[in-house]
Design goal:
Chain B: Keywords: Membrane, Transmembrane, Transmembrane helix. The complex is a heterodimer. Chain A is an alpha/beta fold. In chain A, about 40% of the residues lie in helices and about 20% in strands. Chain A is elongated. Classes of the chains: A alpha/beta, B alpha/beta. The interface between A and B is large, with 43 and 31 residues. Strand 8 of chain A pairs parallel with strand 3 of chain B.
Chain lengths: ~300, ~950
């Protein structure tokens, strides 16, 4: 169960909040988990082995005993079938740690009329599906930027804890997200899922500091289609989701090119940061299939060994 | 009220709001359209960008004009503009609604009632007390003015009906004279039928004593039909109009029974008014057989008792067969016994002569045997069979007859009385007595009422044996009581003997006019009817059989009291003797509103009376239109505002979201449409492609269809019911119908559907002639209609005196080719086309179901059923409300409860089985009936 939030308990409409939380726990969580499971099942690959001999559970190969091998390692059953001695080697299975950050900001709640999902929903789905895949191959997964912190663990319990943490709705969320600055497992991997639409200085400083902590990983920029195409016209007041930023224009259509240029610039900068720190970048739209992003992420995390 | 030409404003002070428009202009101009507000996370990227274009903050002038228009339209709308404002309200105080309500008002009766409603509505809004007096129905029983709340009167208006006689103004005038002294002054609105009648002017004068009088309505459009007469063998009647006018043509339908006994239109004749003529005679030469079956004439397109003329026996020429034993003798015309008969009968009857077999083959009404003595045994059998089947045998005495009678055991069965041998001579050279005159006819005689001329005398006659029952057989007697004419019933017919010859040898009766009248009566009563012309002095009580209602429909007379014949002959029809068919003593005569030679005339304008037309009465409220314009303009304004703020640039989701704001406006617009008149509703466009699609659907699938009654609820039940039946058929049988469709016999092609379900509802319109023809074709070419009056618990089916729906069915069926019916017999093929059924319940059970009566059929030995279904019944008629028990909703669940509990479900199941059987019957016809031959076939195979 999620830890109760004191703020809600003090709230006058406590029962209402409790009820809402309970409904979310019982209602929203299983769909998310189920959907993530379904998504993860499409990338079924089995255990994430190291393709080399080492400590592990699974059989890897028999090889002739060499001088220097310990007698304990001899597989007597195999050796009895021939003259030589054989050593039974197992595949090296070492658990990695992958830290996930799902941008909790309000900007992620945006969903244009044509979009199937909000950006936050898509980010949560990809994060959880990735966690399921990683968990299946024995990796440890942690979630950054949540309170209370979710240390890296593996197993189904961790998945449901993650799901719980992802679906918990915090009311005092920032308008735009900034990358977490907490501790990250050294030598591990990290995946940042966000729209990266925050203020430029804040955002890139955070990204750089995260990347500099000896962690490699992926930035996944999740955008709504309308954020790429800018299909607006007429006299319009644009307002961020949280309402902290406003911008008024007389004719929105005239701004489209300038906006798209700025978006391209933002992406170039993101790619630049990634390149400099050895990260990878994926631009994902909510109108695209989440499978594509999931597969890409899985390959990017597994393929770098 | 403020009037501007034909338009008036009921709340003109609201128009002052128009003065505020300039202020609004100034205000609106200062407020630019609001910018669209959008949530957009990418807004951070926009910060610092410069707007390349600047648009004015001011509202464009055309948008302002649009808004002004909307507001002006709304103001005008709420000022309650009306077209053709009603200004009946000449005075305040009580209002008397005087309704003529005779047959002449019936044709435009709905308009009259609508006009009354307008007047009552006005009175309600002004709070005036109102009284309603129906002239034809007579003045109110109470001695004072029956004033009441106008609101309460409203419910009475729907029940007002015209009476089938002319309104009599005199009793109302008397009633007005008798009003108490303290009766307040009142205004009168008189819905007149416009025809000139005695008593109208005094009534108007009397009404003017109390206040202003307005007469509404005119009789100029009235058309009427006089009673049919027979003129030189032609059936003729006159179509009347009250006013000479332009050329005009009208159809007169001649209605009667067809040879199968079904009432239908026998002929149609066109009456064309020449310009300036007020009457036109129509004449039609019908074959005697057809003419004899004519029951009434109807002027098409006029629903009034004055447009229906009932026929009686004046129309019928009887066929009289004459047989004489004497061989034709040259040059002896005046002594020929047949000469006088021919002369007497020729004007009124068709004579048949020849040998006996020829005569009987021509099916005469009356057979006259003049001085025929012995008949051969074969002839006797022929004649007595014919008499027992309803014929009337009239025999005249003569030397041969006298000679043939009187022997021991020589009883002639074809004589009403036994005769003495010989007869007697009166006043001859060898007798003591003088020729005898006649006694007045007894009351029970068919000759009752005929004047007996003093100079008729009888000098020789045959004499009846004094039997105990002789007195009952005497129809006419001599002064001394000797029977002169005797008659007796024999089977369904009658045998009558004139104890004198048909020529002038034995008496001078054949030379008198009385002879003519007597023969006429005899020949006319031959089929139980009697001539109309001689009701004068007839004191018998005539009982009404069928009467007309004000609209000209035939209704059973019910328990109306009978009237003496003198009343029928003397005065025009009125409440005590409504027009209709009356009978007395097995004879019948028609009482029609307009006799031969009647005329219609319009009432001349009366001094001091205001006149208004009925048609111009409609006061049309323009408010819905004005509000609709306002709403439309507002909607345009909304679109324009959206366009200005870029909301229209892309369709899709944004438009849908804006649509949520638009929807209430649209709904309001539709509501305004509904407020408007029905004719504002968009005419349903039945384009060709739709008809083609329906035809395609109906021909590529089996489609069950129902007749749209116009009653939405009934139609919905029919649709759901046929859907349920279609599903059941698809589940259980090889018949897999598509979704049921509604058809309108007026417009749709019926040939595409094998089966029509026709629920009867009270408000159903009569099918037009074209539609009736279409339905008849449908029925004759193998279609089937299931008529369902849906009112089994209400009682007596669809016959006369039945339920309201039953009467509607009867009215509809009158133009249709419906064969004689019988309740479904136990062994009808309908009971075993798919399921074996004993009864046919729907939502109601136990009401009989009627189908075409089968011809007498024989039972085949060993077969369980009679072979009686060579023909498939074109109609099935019942009252069990099948559609309700079949009806299912979209989920397949029954819509209406049937019965109670398990039994009810069983009833529903049986009802579905009936439906399956019925459709199987429609589809396979008498196929199942062929199985009656199976035992015979098996037996043959066995050999």
């Amino acid at each position: 169960m999620s830890t109760p939030r004191p703020t809600h308990l003090d709230h006058p409409g406590r029962a209402v909040w409790l009820r809402r939380d309970a409904e979310q726990v019982s209602g929203a969580l299983p769909p998310l988990l189920a959907e993530a499971e379904r998504l993860a099942r499409t990338v079924s690959m089995g255990l994430h082995g190291r393709k080399r001999a080492g400590p592990g559970e699974d059989f890897w190969q028999y090889r002739h005993a060499m001088p220097g091998d310990v007698l304990d390692q001899v597989d007597w059953r195999r050796s009895a079938r021939s003259d030589g001695l054989f050593i039974r080697e197992k595949e090296w299975q070492a658990a990695q740690t992958v830290a996930l950050w799902v941008d909790p900001s309000r900007a992620m709640d945006y969903r244009s009329a044509d979009a199937p999902r909000s950006k936050a929903e898509r980010a949560r789905l990809i994060a959880l599906a990735l966690a399921i895949l990683l968990n299946r191959s024995g990796e440890r997964v942690s979630l950054l930027g949540v309170d209370p912190p979710l240390p890296p663990r593996s197993g189904p319990a961790q998945l449901s804890r993650m799901a719980m943490a992802l679906t918990a709705q915090d009311d005092d969320r920032p308008d735009y997200g900034r990358p977490p600055d907490g501790p990250m497992p050294r030598g591990g991997r990290a995946v940042f899922l966000s729209d990266f639409m925050g203020a430029r200085d804040e955002l890139f400083a955070g990204l750089a500091s995260a990347a500099q902590r000896g962690v490699s990983g992926c930035f996944v920029q999740i955008l709504d289609e309308s954020e790429e195409t800018f299909p607006f016209d007429g006299r319009t007041v644009f307002r961020s989701v949280g309402g902290s930023v406003r911008f008024e224009t007389q004719r929105a259509r005239a701004l489209r090119d300038a906006y798209q240029a700025r978006l391209a610039q933002r992406r170039a900068e993101l790619q630049d940061v990634a390149r400099r720190t050895g990260w990878q970048c994926l631009f994902h739209r909510t109108s695209e299939s989440p499978r594509k992003a999931l597969l890409w992420l899985y390959m990017a995390l597994g393929g770098q060994d | 009220m403020l009037s501007l030409g034909p338009v008036a404003f009921l709340s003109p002070w609201l128009l002052a709001g128009l003065l505020a428009l300039p202020v609004l202009w100034w205000l609106l101009r200062a407020v630019p359209p609001r910018p669209a507000e959008r949530i957009f996370p990418g807004v951070r990227l926009l910060l610092g960008l410069n707007d390349p274009e600047v648009t004015p903050d001011r509202t464009p002038w055309w948008l302002l004009a649009l808004r002004m228009l909307a507001l002006a339209a709304a103001i005008i709308g709420f000022a309650l503009p009306v077209l053709n404002p009603q200004e009946d309200t000449l005075a305040d105080g009580p209002l008397l609604l005087l309704v003529d309500g005779g047959w002449a008002s019936a044709d435009d009766w709905p308009d009259r009632v609508a006009r009354l409603e307008v007047a009552v509505d006005a009175a309600v809004s002004e709070g005036r007390p109102v009284a309603l007096v129906h002239v034809a129905a007579g003045p109110p029983a109470s001695g004072d003015l029956p004033l009441g709340e106008a609101e309460a009167l409203r419910t009475r208006l729907a029940g007002l009906e015209p009476r089938p006689w002319a309104p009599d103004a005199a009793p109302v005038t008397d009633w007005l004279r008798g009003l108490p002294e303290d009766t307040p002054a009142f205004e009168t609105l008189w819905l007149t039928d416009g025809l000139a009648r005695d008593g109208i002017a005094p009534l108007a004068a009397e009404l003017q004593r109390f206040g202003p009088v307005t007469m509404v309505g005119t009789g100029a459009q009235l058309r009427a039909l006089t009673a049919p007469t027979l003129d030189g063998g032609m059936l003729s009647a006159t179509v009347l109009r009250p006013e000479a006018g332009p050329e005009e043509s009208r159809q007169v339908a001649i209605i009667g029974l067809d040879p199968t006994g079904t009432e239908r239109r026998l002929a149609t004749v066109t009456a064309a008014f020449a310009p300036g003529e007020t009457e036109v005679a129509v004449a039609l030469d019908l074959p005697v057989e057809t003419r004899n079956r004519v029951s009434r004439l109807r002027l098409e397109g006029v629903t009034s008792a004055g447009a229906v003329a009932l026929a009686d026996d004046t129309l019928r020429r009887r066929k009289v067969g004459i047989l004489s034993a004497a061989a034709a003798q040259e040059g002896q015309n005046l002594t020929d016994p047949l000469f006088y008969l021919r002369k007497a009968l020729e004007p009124s009857a068709d004579l048949i002569d020849g040998v006996l077999t020829d005569i009987l083959n021509a099916a005469p009404d009356v057979l006259i045997l003049a001085d025929v003595g012995r008949l051969s045994a074969g002839e006797q059998v022929l004649i007595s069979d014919w008499v027992e089947g309803g014929g009337k045998l009239v025999r005249f005495a003569g030397p041969r007859l006298a000679a043939s009678q009187g022997g021991p055991g020589s009883v002639d069965p074809l004589l009403p009385v036994r005769l003495r041998a010989g007869g007697r001579d009166l006043g001859g050279a060898l007798s003591w007595g003088a020729p005898k005159a006649l006694r007045p006819f007894p009351e029970t005689s068919p000759f009752a009422g005929l004047d007996v001329p003093a100079d008729v005398s009888v000098s020789r006659q045959v004499v009846a044996q004094p039997d105990p029952d002789l007195a009952g057989k005497v129809m006419a007697a001599l002064e001394d009581g000797t029977p002169l004419v005797t008659g007796t019933a024999m089977g369904d017919g009658q045998v009558i003997l004139f104890h004198v010859t048909a020529n002038a040898e034995w008496s001078n009766l054949p030379l008198s006019g009385l002879f003519l009248s007597m023969l006429e009566r005899l020949s006319l009563t031959a089929t139980g009817r009697r001539a109309a012309a001689d009701l004068d002095g007839d004191t018998r009580i005539w009982t009404p059989e069928i009467v007309l209602d004000g609209f000209g429909a035939l209704v059973p007379a019910g328990d109306l009291a009978g009237v003496p014949g003198t009343r029928l002959a003397g005065e025009p029809p009125a409440a005590d003797a409504p027009p209709g068919l009356y009978s007395a003593g097995g004879q019948a005569r028609a009482v029609n509103l307009l006799g031969d030679g009647a005329k219609l005339a319009l009432q001349a304008p009366l001094p001091g009376v205001a006149y208004r037309g009925l048609g111009a009465a409609a006061q049309v409220s323009l408010m819905p239109y004005a509000l609709l314009i306002a709403l439309g303009t507002l909607f345009a304004d909304l679109l324009a505002s959206l366009a200005l703020s870029g909301g229209l640039r892309r369709g899709g989701g944004r438009m849908a979201r804006e649509g949520q704001a638009v929807a209430p406006l649209l709904i309001a617009g539709l509501a305004a449409l509904a407020l408007g008149r029905a004719d504002m509703a968009l005419a349903q466009s039945d384009s060709l492609s739709e008809a083609d699609q329906a035809a395609l659907l109906a021909t590529s699938n089996t489609v069950l269809a129902y007749v749209a009654t116009g009653d939405a609820q009934v139609d919905a039940v029919s649709a759901a019911g046929l859907l349920g039946l279609s599903r059941t058929l698809a589940y259980r049988t090889a018949v897999e119908p598509a979704a049921p469709v509604a058809v309108d016999p007026e417009t749709d092609d019926l040939a595409l559907y094998p089966f029509l379900y026709w629920p009867i509802s009270e408000g159903q319109a009569q099918p037009s002639d074209a539609a009736a023809a279409k339905i008849n074709t449908f029925l004759r070419t193998g279609g089937m209609i299931l008529f369902d009056t849906r009112d089994a618990p209400l009682g007596n089916g669809f016959g006369a005196g039945g339920t309201p729906n039953g009467r509607v069915l009867q009215r509809i069926a009158q133009d249709l080719d419906i064969p004689p019916l019988e309740p479904v017999p136990q062994d009808h093929v309908l009971t075993r086309t798919f399921y074996l059924l004993q009864d046919f319940p729907g939502r109601h059970a136990n009401a009989p179901v009627w189908i075409e009566a089968a011809p007498a059929a024989r039972q085949i030995e060993g077969a369980p059923f009679r072979n009686l279904n060579d023909g498939v019944s074109p109609v099935v008629i019942g009252a069990n409300d099948w559609a309700s028990s079949w009806a299912i909703d979209a989920d397949g669940l029954p819509l209406y409860p049937v019965g109670r509990g398990i039994g009810g479900e069983r009833q529903r199941e049986i009802s579905f089985r009936f439906g399956v059987n019925l459709i199987m019957y429609v589809m396979t016809g008498n196929y199942k009936s062929d199985q009656v031959h199976v035992p015979a076939l098996l037996e043959r195979l066995g050999q």
